[in-house]
Specification:
Distance between the termini: 29 Å
Structural class: alpha/beta
Oligomer: single chain
Largest sheet: 4 strands, mixed
Low-confidence stretches: none
Helix content: 40-55%
Order of helices and strands: EHEHEEHHH
Strand order of the largest sheet: 1-2-4-3
Strand content: 15-25%
Shape: globular
Number of helices: 5
Number of strands: 4
């Protein structure tokens, strides 16, 4: 089970993007490259987005906007998701917004690097775009195990 991942972000360097993409390689199976857009927002920007999209008037660390429903654990066939294929023939999984300020606060709070927190939030967002969730204890454990496996590939484990 593997597929090529593409993270599109103007804020990440080529090497940061490549590292993330390599680490994400086997978490989904698809017959086309998978792409997620990633943006970094201020606290005010993510609060406004959270209010507009979820009706929650609060700053949050990460918001995910999946393009497809019901895809968790399934092989993704581009032909079955024509409305999510971009002009380059890639399957668009969705968009992820990360709050820079909140990520920096959480890195200090948890005692690890800002790099680890940004990467963790990106992986978390990608997993939401793939249909993972953490509403039940079982879902939370499965998501956390997958996050930690990807983070270990980047040598960004928990301290």
């Amino acid at each position: 089970m593997s597929s090529r991942f593409i993270i599109e972000s103007e804020e990440l360097s080529e090497s940061e993007t490549a590292r993330l993409e390599d680490a994400l390689t086997d978490i989904a199976d698809a017959d086309a490259p998978l792409v997620c857009d990633l943006v970094f927002l201020s606290g005010d920007e993510i609060r406004a987005l959270n209010l507009r999209e979820r009706g929650i008037d609060a700053v949050t660390d990460v918001l995910s906007f999946p393009s497809m429903d019901g895809i968790k654990g399934k092989r993704l066939i581009a032909e079955e998701h024509r409305d999510c294929i971009d002009e380059e023939g890639r399957l668009v999984l969705g968009s992820i917004a990360i709050c820079k300020e909140r990520a920096e606060e959480q890195a200090r709070e948890y005692g690890h690097s800002v790099e680890r927190e940004f990467n963790y939030l990106t992986v978390h967002g990608v997993l939401h775009c793939l249909g993972y969730d953490h509403m039940t204890e079982g879902e939370k454990n499965e998501m956390r195990e997958t996050e930690e496996r990807v983070m270990a590939r980047m040598n960004l484990q928990r301290n």
